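Reviewers asked in the last cycle whether our approach scales beyond single polypeptides. To address this, we selected a multi-component target totalling 1430 residues and predicted its structure end to end. The input consisted of the following lines:
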Amino acid sequence: MRNISSVLGRLAKTVSVGMMLLFAVTMAHAQDVKEGETLFKSKCTTCHSVSRNMVGPALAGMSERHSEEWLLSWIKNSQALIASGDETAVQLFEDWNRLVMTSFTDLSDDQIKSIIAYVDAEGAKAAEGGGDAASGGAGSTQSSDANTLMIFGLIAIVVLVIIVIVVLNRVIRTLEKVIASNQAAIEAAQAENEAYEEDRFGKFARAFIRNKKLVGFSVLMLVAFLGVLGWNTMWNVGVHEGYQPVQPIKFSHQIHAGVNQIECQYCHGGAFKSKNASIPSANVCMNCHNTVTAADHYDGETSPEIAKIYRALDYDPATREYGDNPKPIEWVRIHNLPDFAYFNHSQHVSVAGVECQTCHGPIETMEEVYQYSPLTMKWCVDCHKTTEVNADNAYYDQLIEAHEKLKKGEKMTAAMIGGLECGKCHY
Amino acid sequence: MDSNKKYWKGLEELQQTPAFVENKKGEFAEPIPVEDVLNEAGLSTRTPRRDFLKALGFGLGAVTLAACNRTPVHKAVPYVIKPEEVTPGIPNFYASSFNGQSVLVRTREGRPISLTANPNSIGLNQGTDAITSAVVLDLYDMSKLQNPQLDGKDVDWSTLDKTVIDALNKAAAAGKQIAIVSNTVNSPTALAAIATFTAKYPTAVHIQVDAVSYSGIIEANRASFGKAVIPSYHFANANVVVSVAADFLGSWLAGEEHTQDYIRNRDYKSLKNGKMSRHIQFESGLSMTGSNADVRIAIKPSEEGAVLVSLYNAITGQSLAGGVSNKKAQTAITLAAKELTNNRGNALVVAGSNDVNIQLLANAINSALGAYGAIIDLDNYSKQFQGSDAAFQQFLSTAAAGQVGAAFFLNSNPVYDYVKANDVTNALSKIDFTLSFADRADETASTLKAIAPASSFLESWGDASAKEGYFTIVQPTINPVFNTRQAEQSLLVWAGDNTNIYDFVRKNWEENILAGTGKSWNEVLQLGFIYKGSSVGSSYTANVDVNAVANAIGTTSKTIVGDFELKLYESTVMRDGRYANNAFLQELPDPVSKVTWDNYAALNPRDAEKIGLGENGKVTVEANGYSVELPVVLQPGQALGTVSVAVGYGRTKVGKAGNNVGQNAYPFARLVNGSVQFEAKANVAKASGTYELAQTQTHHTIEGRNIIRETTFAKYLKDPNSESGRFADSHKTYDLWNKFESPGHKWVMAIDLNACTGCGSCIVACSVENNVPVVGRDEVRRRREMHWLRIDRYYTLETEGGRLTEEKEIAKASDYDYEDVTVVHQPMLCQHCDHAPCETVCPVLATVHSSEGLNHMAYNRCFGTRYCANNCPFKVRRFNWFNYWNDSRFDNYLNNEFTQLVLNPDVTTRSRGVMEKCSMCIQRIQGGKLQAKMENRKLRDGDVKMACQEACSANAIIFGDVNDPESEVSKALRNERVYYVLEEINVQPNIGYMTKVRNTFEA
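The resulting structure, written as structure tokens, was:
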């Protein structure tokens, strides 16, 4: 069961994405801005943002600071410009810790001009947006998240309810006046009605109790119903299929493993060599999130979720320095195998070649991870009974009989070589 | 063929005392009052039936309610920045060393969890002794100090450093001595640090003193050869070994090194080649070494010198005065002397005494036997014990005279372990500034001004050189857990040298040790050791004035002659008492007496009878003006008129587990001829009251069934099958059960009874590997010890007419003096029977057989009927009476969050109410198989090693796959000596034992 907040969250995201699209369409005036956007996102965002200093300076207003000609030569080959002794270029190079900017000799002048146009447009938009936000205008809806939406929704509901109550009160008062005028007639009718009702119910009850067969049958049905209910409940004690706790970081496997196609092994290397799949340490996140800040989705700011990684590492993205007060991220464990069951990832992943999805489900589509498999012993055993061992492994050459069978092309399941014995998992 | 010997575990069994008969009869050690509850009289018993039902009902309801809480939320916290070399779930191994032995430290997720011998090392140990296996627990000891202390209050290091430096400057200015009192320091780095310190403070002196002193040997060698060293003894080259009161397999010098060498001449490989050494032991108390001897003669401590005099006379043909008058000893000496002279150049005599004169005489004998060179190596000498009793006495008198300005104690606890504790406290009070490097406020440290707690060796950089030319590295495997600092670093800081200890160690190695070896520092960190010694020592001739020595021995011996003669000894388990707070060690039964959690006065049963003592009796032992009450152990093999007491017990300030366990016996020792000696004249009197020792000897009895096979070397040479009594050879068997097929692997074990010395290090290694809980003294008394592996020790009586059969023996038992017993040690663990009786009686199939020949135990299925334990013919199953890991009643031992870090994460901790037993380290088997699969190869012999096997220096335990005909275990099991215990009941055990072979004289 996914909780309501995530549904609302998704709703909020859809709304805001829609708003953004709308905004983008109204803002789109020139062809070069669009081309510039594409180029900017593919070539520049690794180091630059329009409104924020990253590896390189914020680009907003660069056409005001520098001439177009200067910009063209700088972007094409900044080192050559510096070598030529251009004062501005040298100054800039020194200011930014002598970081060498990649040369883009493959960009044509027109392309660079499109980028400049895009940056100008974005810069203007950001300035406008900032002003709007300050005056509480519509611009702020862009960054609205689920919480604000919910608050507004609640307020609207409260207002609505008050209105309904007021209207109903009016109606009730009118009706009361009518009732008061007809009181006597109503009382007579009520008394008649009650007597009739009581009589009918009593008759039915007496007839039911007298009919032993019916009573017996009903009791039997009740017992059977409770029994089945109890049985099912008992079997599912400790089974947490679908368990989806709220995690400290809204990490989306859908984006990482799905959209970006990052190999599972990149983060969960342990699954291939150890019993623990292991949750990656924050420094693994930083391999990408050093530069990937999803700032384009958060108005130039670092995504609040990615910022949590920085906080864990005590990393300051502005100075790009690590502090000495790191705090580990406390994830909530989803797959809880009992202590008495030994499970080794590498045995299954590396030796048997089981896909991650076999047990963890369509992980690449999960916005938030939930427990896909029941993780019961029956579930383990069922798989061991049907899964054939990986006959190519030279280890099995030793198991003479197993080897003979395999040579004959017979099936050899994990169960047949002792995969169901207690001591293989319980020790 | 049935053996006609009667083996017994204790006098209770031999004499069939009522308590013993009662205990062995019951289905369970403590009867369950089922009958009382269910019969008519049940209503009037203490727990009437109705109350029982009420309790049952309430219990059921309460448990249901308790189970209704929500599943707890588990957190998974990854590293912030994962160290590159750590993969969660996979152990890392670091080469390090402990007490000079090269070891591998296994760490998981950054915490050390076990120590094993470095398999590549050529050094002192193939296995590990009990202390080495157990010592990892000391890292997680809650009783350690968490901060430096000044006047009993926590301070920070800078405050302490300032105080210390001020005190040192004051002492230096006054020209007073600055003393560093330590036990033997053989670490080159520590010595370099001390040298740096001494250079800064020229009045500093370094005094080495050991709790158990070997200065007698050092002084004797100084006199005989001009070399003040303890030689290395190469038992592997000795065909005949005569030991006079030296427990050389256990506590004397380097027990593990001696064991592996000694066993090389006696194990199945050696016997296969028709070779076995002969070992003759003269001693008063039955030591572990004595229990392994081929011939053992009980003598009094006062006769030790006399035995050597007689031996010298018999070998050299001289006639020194003061030979032994004991008849039995005389006969043995004549035979021994003949053996020794016949094996000149391959014979060795060792003496355990710390008396210079006795050691001088031993030197003379060994010199006459040509033992110096190949057997006694004075060139590649041992550096494990360099303490000098004389130097410490000198220090005490200097201090008492007010001449010492500051004293530092490093691994030294003289208030507890020095002969005259009063002299020590008196001297300490005259010293201006005193400090200890102890990791806890021990007996000495707590009386001093300051404590600068040193880090554990698992948290430190360092090294050791236990033998000339042999260097081992110590590298940290965890950051210091508490605010501690290693002693070498402290000394450097106080000497004004701010070098980091890592740089200091590395520099010292690169400049002084690695030079010329072609090895780099990083290679050493991986290897763990460097050996630069020569192969064989050169031969020496002892220069001894034997007449003077014999006279001196006579004089000294006379002073200890009395009604009772007291012999102090180091127990194999507790040694000098340094590790007394280690619960694994406290619970390890003594190899011979099987007593846990106490020391005791060992008396010959006849002597005890004379004093009027029975079981659980107590005596007052008085010697040297010191007296204590001790519980009595009726020890077969103990010489008449002697009493043995172990030192190393009776600590009062060591920690929760070790405080007030037993009595301190150090004050019984005497200072004679400038050395501390462990023999004294004593008075032994019956004390009032009783005391029940936690002794495991008759627990898990197997009812006198014939499970020991023993033969003599002479018989073995004629017929290697001798006495092995293979049932299958002479009987046809019929199977009630289906045959178990093991198509893949079949895991089996071979145990060589001739190699097992009974030391018990395997038990500790097993406990550490398998998270076996420590239960404490009271629970051991209730027969509830949890060890998966035990070593049964069986006695047989010897008479002049040979051994007697069962019937005769019991009838005549009263005629013996119990001095002449022989001992067999038998490791007993789950036999993984193919037709396991435990499996058939389990109502819930919690214990079942695997296709690899193992008897699996599923703890989560077990609900504790204990039928399996009752039906096990070997009595190897253990029941969890408590949640030992999570029960405040076991707080002293392993139950706290910090100490639990020692647990092996690959093995579950068992819950209350379930059975457990040896799993054949199934986690290691599974791990080994997985490793082979990951590397896409077959499993090789030796890939999987059992914890007990790794710990055994004697190689008595061999494990492997019997389906592989080339494996070591297959070869071992094809040996003629192999037999299976209780083979006749057709349980088909998977552990084969090899007969005990004794190289006796008469055969």
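Chain B touches chain A through 48 residues (CB under 8 Å). We regard this as preliminary and will revisit it once experimental data from Aim 1 are available.
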